Every structure is written in C-alpha cells, then in structure tokens.
Amino acid sequence: MGWSADDIPDQTGRTAVITGGNGGIGYHTALALARHGARVLLACRNEARGKAAAERIGAAAPGSRVAYRHLDLADLSTVRAFAAGYDADRLDLLVNNAGVMALPYGRTADGFETQFGVNHLGHFALTGLLLPRLLRTPGARVVTVSSGLHVLATIDPTDPNGERRYRRWVAYARSKSANLLFTHELARRLTAAGAPVTAAAAHPGYADTGLAVAGVRMEGRRTAERVVRAAGRIVAQPAAAGALPTLYAATAPGVAQDAFFGPRIATLRGAPAPSPRAPWTVNDAAGERLWDLSEELTGVRPQLPAVR
C-alpha cells in the first residue's frame, strides 16, 4: 500500500502556510494537514476562491483552524505585505506550492518572466521574509513543490527572463529546476548555520490538477484544452494522490535536508518515494549563483550566515 494521508502524525499545535492552497494539490495538502490538527493559512491570489476553499476545509474538518490570506506571487509587494502581516509567533511549515505552467510569454508586476517570477522568485522572496519565524520554530520545514519535468532544462542565469528566446515548456522546466536548486542551496545554508529547519522538495507526478489547462486556455486553443482535460481525467492520478509527496516531505519523521519525493510508480503515480533529480539541481556553485541572482532581482536577502 505504501504511505498515505492516514500516516500523517498529529499536527496539533503546528502552523502551516500553503501557497496556492485554494485548489489542486495545494488544497488537498491543506485539507490533510487541517484534518490532523494543524492551523492552516491559505496564501492565495484570488480572495473569493481562497475564502471558499477555507470554508470547504472547515466543513470537511470540523473544528479545524483554516484561514485565507492574500498573496500574489506575481507581485512582490503582496509577498512583502503577507510576511509583514504574519502574526503568529511560530511557523512550523511553509509549503511553496503555487505555480503556473507553460504559459504564453508574460511578465509579473515586477517585470520578471511569469513562470520564473511566480514559480521561483516569489517563493524565494516569501521564504526569505518568513525565515526569521521558521528559525524560531524548532523542527520547522520548508517544502517546495517542483515537477518531474524539471529534467527538460536547466537554468540559464544569463537570461532568466527568457528574453533571447522563449519556449514555454523550457521556461517551465527551468523554473522547476530553480525550485530544486533553491531547495538544495537553502538546505546547504541551513546546515552550515546549524539551523533547526529542514528544506525539502516534492513533485506530484502526473496529477489531475487543471494546471496544464491554463496555458492553452489563455491562447484560446479549445481543442487542445479538451484533450488536456480528457488526459487528466483518464490517465492522471487524482489531485489528492498528487499531494501525498508534499505531505510526506512536510510531516514524515526523519526527512533529510534536500530530500526530494515523488510518486513511486515511474515517478508518475502511487505512494511517495525518493525521486530522481537532474544533476544540475544539486550543484553547489549553481545553487550559489541562483541564490545571488534571486537576491539581486527580488531585493530579499535571507538572514542566514554565509556557507562556510
């Protein structure tokens, strides 16, 4: 059978922030944590959907504490506002889950290519700004959601915004490689600092989340949208199953620094297991370059001692 949501340890007294917790694997991550006693904050762009998701989780998990907070990863001013307004004394779990996939070329409010800006830079800034709370919470974890498709492309630090040539799937893969390389570098720095925080990553395999539909819908490709939706219904595993690697990374005992989990069966479906990753996502020099670039672009400088 393998590990399931029933194996999640008691989360009573823990506080979790989940980006994009209003739908897909983020919603099921939030629901499972709430059912096991965690206080959950849904950090979402859309207020109506965020509040509706909080109400659904409250109904499904009576007595749980779930709330919506505004956060738009495509606008760093809202990331700063979210962090400034975070009022809990502790933060046990930050799940960097929200993301976009294979969109037509666009830019965030701060001028970054949308996929790199939302999937990586927004989460880098959020993690950096919330790091003081994480560091004050022994046993805290940062779990960043990547994708098995990260293997399609490594990061180009000389052209992070895809200005020379934009290919939407390559840009997506680069942003997901950035998620893993960020996790690697964060884990390295936490270890060097002797900090009581674990940085890990996960991916959902092929899960029916609707994420892949957004790009073709924006381009008005109705036939392609129908095909993608049908594939999601027929081939993909349910979103609740896709959330299991994230939940494992977030709650299972003994998760190591820089661990990466995905579905066990061909990395596409099934119970969580350690997942293979591209070699460029564990390259120390590349991780340091990405960290420095991310600090420069976002203006956020996470307060950790330099790697020794």
From TrEMBL:
Keywords: Oxidoreductase. The keyword Oxidoreductase applies. One of its GO terms (molecular function) is oxidoreductase activity. Belongs to the short-chain dehydrogenases/reductases (SDR) family. This is Dehydrogenase. InterPro entries: NAD(P)-bd_dom_sf, SDR_fam. It comes from the Bacteria.
